Each structure stands twice: as C-alpha cells, then as structure tokens.
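Q: Hi! First time doing this. I have a protein sequence and I read that you can turn it into a structure. Is that right? Here it is:
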Amino acid sequence: MDLCRKGNTMGHTGNERLLVMLGGIDRINEWMGKIYSWILVPLTVMVTFEVVSRYVLNRPHAFVTELAFYMYGSLAILVAGYTLRHGGHVGVDIFESRFSPRTKFVVQTITFLVFFVPFVGLLIPAATDMTIKSFASHERSVFAMLPLTPYFKACLPIGLTLLLLQGVADFARSIASWAATRRDS
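A: Yes, that's right. Below is the predicted 3D structure, encoded as structure tokens:
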C-alpha cells in the first residue's frame, strides 16, 4: 500500500505527525536540561576552589575564573529551551492573570510573533557567524589564553536553536488549545 499517494507518509495523520514532532522537541530540550544541569557540580567545585585560592591563599587562577565563566554561559544558553518548556523564563503573568483566555492568547501570539521569533531568529545567524569566525581564527580566551573559546561560542547557536524550536512547539500547542476551546464553545 502506497501511503505517500494518500498524503500520509508515515501512517499518521497530520495532527499525529505534529504531535510526534512536538514531543521530539520536548524530549530534546528535556534531555539537554537534565544532562547539562550536571555542569553545576564541577562548576560549583571550581568556583569554591577559586574563592578559597583567591581569598584564603591569595593565589588566584585566571584559567579557573574564565573556565567557570564559559561553563556557566554554556549552561545558561543550552538549557534555555528546557527553561522555556518548564515556564522558567520571565513573563508578564501579573497582567495575563487578569486577562480572559482569548485576550491572553492574543497577547501571547503578538509577543511571540513580534518579539520572540524576530529576536531569536536574528540572534541565531549572528551567533553562528561569530562561532565560525572564532573557529577560523583559533580564538583564545582573554586572560588565560584557553583554546576553548570557539567550542563555548558554538553553544550559542545550538542553544538559541533549541530555544526557538521549543518556542514554536509551545506556540503550536497554544494554537491547538485555543482552536479546541473555540470548537467546544
């Protein structure tokens, strides 16, 4: 039986394929959040070591400070999609809690389309370009001359892409929920 001829490439309806895709985005961001949260363990050890070394022993280490900075930055950007998935980003809940479901949907749609998509959409190519240039120039860190800078910069386009995908997934769910509400009323 030729499923492609019927417009059904995987034996699923369009809605089922969409749900599978949205679930895949959720699983990727969930995995990233759980895996990269473990960066906090060595990061805490490094910062504690540097504080003791700097303030107790009076022997600071530039490479530890820079490595901690890079690790924290990569952690923050790589789990941005996970944070969005779990509602951890700053929102306008103070105002939205007073809105009707329809008004809330309209406000969320406008902020998504006017602010979120353009902002993240512009950052991804800029971050990608910056990462490519960093690898091409064999960029090193400022003080300790660590050769890891391009690898940490590569976290930017990856994390931003995951954030954008999670935003699109959440927006698709919001539309589906709003449409279901409209059908039921």
